[in-house]
């Protein structure tokens, strides 16, 4: 089983490496190891790092290089052995490789479609739309007290009406992570908070607190709006990559919807699958 997994893993790495070579050019991708006449290149190491857990992907390449190198060497050795044993001709291997091939082709197709469809003019247009929206919006600096029941929140609102200090009350009563700094949430803009929280904060006058509890998926909130300011508008260069990624996602989704609309698709529900397995 280990050898079979290694063969599939190596195939994934090789496919990712192929895509990297197309973009980078082999001449900029030095050989970093040779295993039984098979070359291991720097892009292999970099692509292997991209397969690490997200918390480790940000580590400097120098720090993870030795571990990744040994892993790639082990995978290459295991793959060679698996091929000698004929595992690359088994139905299990061929089925998994077909699935991997589908995924790679999908990524290449979407990448080519986006590359041909997305223009600088599209990104600039989206940026201008964002700027126009930002002119009518503001950022809010707020505090909150988070509790697990509406009655508790109502009792806290009454204490605030009686003159209690919001920051002190948040430090004593809040069950959220901002408890340690008096419930201070800092600044946030449109779309950064739960919808009901944001709508309530927008309606609260500066310096005031919510007179009715606000419910979100996290619990019940009492909110105080400390300040308001105009939205900070990033420069085009600062926003370009984010907007390009946003537009790329939209183009990819629209393209797949078009393919589905043009295709003949038959699918079974989960219940039908369970029934078929029971028969």
Helix-strand blueprint:
Elements: H1 2-24, E1 31-35, E2 38-41, H2 42-50, H3 54-57, H4 61-84, H5 91-117, H6 120-135, E3 138-147, H7 150-161, H8 166-173, E4 184-188, H9 195-203, E5 214-216, E6 219-230, H10 236-262, H11 270-278
Antiparallel strand pairs: 1-2, 3-4, 3-6, 5-6
Helix pairs in contact: 1-2, 1-4, 1-5, 2-4, 5-10, 6-10
Can you characterise this structure?
The chain has 279 residues and is of the alpha+beta class. It has 3 domains: 2-110, no CATH class; 118-137 and 236-264; 138-230, Chitinase A, domain 3 (Roll). It is 60% helix and 14% strand. A hairpin with a 2-residue loop joins β1 (31-35) and β2. The longest helix is centred in the middle third of the chain and has 27 residues, at 91-117. It is elongated and about 80 Å long. The two termini are 30 Å apart.
Q: What is the element string, with H for helices and E for strands?
A: HEEHHHHHEHHEHEEHH
- The poorly predicted ranges are 1-26
Q: What is the number of beta strands?
A: 6
* Global morphology: elongated
How large is the share of residues in beta strands?
A: 5-15%
The main sheet comes to: 4 strands, antiparallel
**Structural class given helices, strands, pairing?**
alpha+beta
The strand line-up of the biggest sheet is 4-3-6-5
What is the CA-based Rg, rounded? 27 Å
> How many structural domains in the coordinates?
3
Span from first to last CA?
Answer: 30 Å
Please give the share of residues in helix.
55-70%
**Average of per-residue pLDDT values:** 90
Total DSSP helices: 11
């Amino acid at each position: 089983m280990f050898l079979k997994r290694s063969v599939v893993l190596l195939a994934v790495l090789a496919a990712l490496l192929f895509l990297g070579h197309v973009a980078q050019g082999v001449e900029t991708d030095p050989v970093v190891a040779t295993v039984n006449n098979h070359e291991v290149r720097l892009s292999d190491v970099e692509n292997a790092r991209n397969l690490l857990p997200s918390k480790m992907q940000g580590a400097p390449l120098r720090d993870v290089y030795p571990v990744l190198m040994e892993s790639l060497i082990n995978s290459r050795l295991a793959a060679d052995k698996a091929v000698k044993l004929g595992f690359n001709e088994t139905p299990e291997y061929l089925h998994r490789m077909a699935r991997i091939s589908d995924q790679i082709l999908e990524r290449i197709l979407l990448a080519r479609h986006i590359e041909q469809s997305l223009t600088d003019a599209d990104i600039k247009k989206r940026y201008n739309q964002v700027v126009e929206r930002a002119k009518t919006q503001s950022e809010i600096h707020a505090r909150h007290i988070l509790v697990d029941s509406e009655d508790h929140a109502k009792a806290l609102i009454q204490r605030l009406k009686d003159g209690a200090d919001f920051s002190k009350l948040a430090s004593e009563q809040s069950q959220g992570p901002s408890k340690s700094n008096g419930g201070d949430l800092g600044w946030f803009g449109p779309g950064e908070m739960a919808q009901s929280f944001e709508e309530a904060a927008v309606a609260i006058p500066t310096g005031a607190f919510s007179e009715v509890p606000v419910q979100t998926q996290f619990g019940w909130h009492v909110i105080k709006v400390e300040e308001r300011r105009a939205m900070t508008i990033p420069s085009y260069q600062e926003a370009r990559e984010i907007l390009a990624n946003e537009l790329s996602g939209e183009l990819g989704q629209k393209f797949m919807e078009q393919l589905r609309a043009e295709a003949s698709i038959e699918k079974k529900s989960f219940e039908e699958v369970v029934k078929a397995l029971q028969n």
